[in-house]
Amino acid sequence: MDNPAEKLEEGIGFLKRAEIFGRLSPEELKAIVNTGRIETHAPGSTIFKIGDPSDAIYVIKSGVVEICRAKGDREKMVVVAYLGESDLKYFDLPTVIQTLATSERTGTLTITDQLEGVFARIYFEAGKVLYAELDHLKGEEAFYQLFQSPMQDAFTFKGGLPPVEFKEEEEIATTTMGLLMEAARQQDELKVLKESYADPNRVFRPQSETLPWNDEETEGLAQEVWARLHRRETIDQMAREIPVCQYRIYKVLSLMEAKGLAA
After folding, report:
1. Would you state the pLDDT for residue 56?
2. Which of 21, 37, 220, 255 is 20 to 30 A distant from 2 in Cα terms?
């Protein structure tokens, strides 16, 4: 982009998207663009160190910056936060979530798809996962489904209050570490289940007139799945409409098949 006017417009547009500059006037943003400069840093390079003079403010345009500190008596620097945007091919989601948790961040982690649309959102309060949303799923089910869906392209983290769409009744009680451990367990089991039920368009057929079910924890879901089997819905249809993660649907279907209730 060689045109100065286009460079200025592009710079103003970028700064307007940054939380710290979002409320400034066009003239104020123009002044910042004209006095600032763009820096490019190679992967692994150091931008600043603890103790350096506080004579600049950095706004990350692309890429991700690791914030490192020495913890306790250890001399080795450890990552305590990620800032900016990141490609999930290089930073796995559990690591990002653990980092936000250990650094006690408050704000929303937004995960976007290839078209830069919102795929999922997770809200942290002082490092604890409080809300989650993915498509038609809310709360813990949305969190678990995030690890059962194809990995998406990028994420951003923005500090502040939770999005107004999140409701108090959707608040997650499980600890962040508990969520991650359960997500890993479900992810592993779902992989095995999908080997048995590889076709998401498969239609199970009821093999009984009634549904004898003695597991209180899954009884409600079993009744919902049973009704949909009678409507000859596919596994994929159930996963898109029932407000639970894929693992729970596959698990109930496998139990029904094992009991001779569906085939």
Report:
1. 84
2. 21
213's tokens:
């079910």
pLDDT given for residue 197 in this prediction: 92
Q: What's the confidence (pLDDT) of residue 77?
A: 76
Determine the Cα–Cα distance for residues 129 and 166; give it in Å rounded to an integer.
Answer: 13
Q: How many CB atoms lie within 10 A of CB 105?
A: 18
CA 215 to chain centre: 31
- How long is the chain? 263
Q: List, in sequence order, the alpha helices (H) in the chain.
A: 4-17, 26-35, 93-102, 139-146, 176-196, 216-230, 235-241, 246-258
Domain ranges in the chain are 1-37, 39-186, 197-258
Whole-number Å distance between alpha carbons of 85 and 206: 48
The parts of the chain modelled with pLDDT lower than 70 are: 1-2, 19, 71-75, 79-82, 84-91, 152-153
Q: Please tell me the predicted confidence (pLDDT) of residue 1.
A: 53
Q: How far, in Å, CA of 161 to CA of 85, rounded? A: 20
Q: Would you say 85 and 96 are in contact if contact means Cβ atoms under 8 Å apart?
A: no
Q: Which long-range contacts (CB under 8 A, 24 or more apart) does 126-132 make?
A: 127/100, 127/101, 127/102, 127/103, 127/176, 128/101, 128/175, 128/176, 129/97, 129/101, 129/172, 129/174, 129/176, 129/179, 130/162, 130/166, 130/171, 130/172, 131/162, 131/166, 131/170, 131/171, 131/172, 132/172
pLDDT for residue 18 = 73
CA dihedral of residues 135, 137, 142, 144 (deg, nearest 10): -110
The CA distance from 11 to 190, in Å, is 45
